[in-house]
């Protein structure tokens, strides 16, 4: 059985048998889709991977203090920005 390292709502990592549905960047506290073009470009250029984290779902990422990515989640980002 495969195990995945996810981050919980408390910001702590835990092992799961179910993969995460969204990825994030630990330093910038941004979450987004796993196929985010911006994240994939950065990974291809050799960056980002060391600080990459994964969440079970969007509510968990938000509870952990992460904000939506402007590139792959523009509507969620605009809503987040409007609340600031």
Structural notes for this entry:
The structure is a single chain. The protein has 84 residues and is an alpha+beta fold. The protein has helices at residues 37-44, 58-63, 74-83, and strands spanning 4-7, 13-16, 22-25, 30-33, 52-55, 67-68. The chain is 29% helix and 26% strand. A four-stranded mixed beta sheet has the order 5-3-4-6. A two-stranded antiparallel ribbon has the order 1-2. The chain is globular and about 40 Å long. The chain starts with a strand and ends with a helix. The model has no long low-confidence stretch (mean pLDDT 95). This is Metal-binding protein. It comes from Mycolicibacterium porcinum.
Brief account:
This protein has 84 residues and is of the alpha+beta class. 29% of the residues lie in helices and 26% in strands. It is built from three helices and six strands; from the N terminus they run ββββαβαβα.
Query: What is the subunit arrangement here?
Result: single chain
By helix and strand content, what is the structural category? alpha+beta
**Can you tell me the residue ranges where pLDDT is under 50 for at least 5 consecutive residues?**
none
What proportion of the residues form beta strands (DSSP E)?
A: 25-35%
Question: Over the alpha carbons, how many angstroms does the gyration radius reach?
Answer: 13 Å
Helical percentage: 25-40%
Mean pLDDT: 95
Order of helices and strands: EEEEHEHEH
- Principal-axes geometry comes out as globular
The total count of strands amounts to 6
Strand order of the largest sheet: 5-3-4-6
Please describe the biggest sheet, giving its number of strands, its sense, and whether it closes into a barrel: 4 strands, mixed
End-to-end span in angstroms?
42 Å
Number of helices: 3
GO molecular function, one term: zinc ion binding
Keywords: Activator
Domain Ada DNA repair metal-binding: 24-75
InterPro entries: Ada-like_dom_sf, Ada_DNA_repair_Zn-bd
């Amino acid at each position: 059985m495969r195990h995945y390292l996810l981050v919980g709502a408390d910001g702590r990592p835990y092992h799961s048998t179910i993969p995460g549905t969204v990825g994030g960047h630990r330093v910038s506290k941004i979450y987004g889709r796993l196929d985010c073009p911006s994240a994939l470009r950065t990974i291809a250029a050799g960056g980002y991977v060391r600080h990459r984290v994964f969440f079970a779902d969007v509510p968990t990422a938000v509870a952990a203090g992460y904000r939506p990515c402007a590139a792959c989640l523009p509507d969620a980002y605009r809503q987040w920005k409007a609340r600031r």
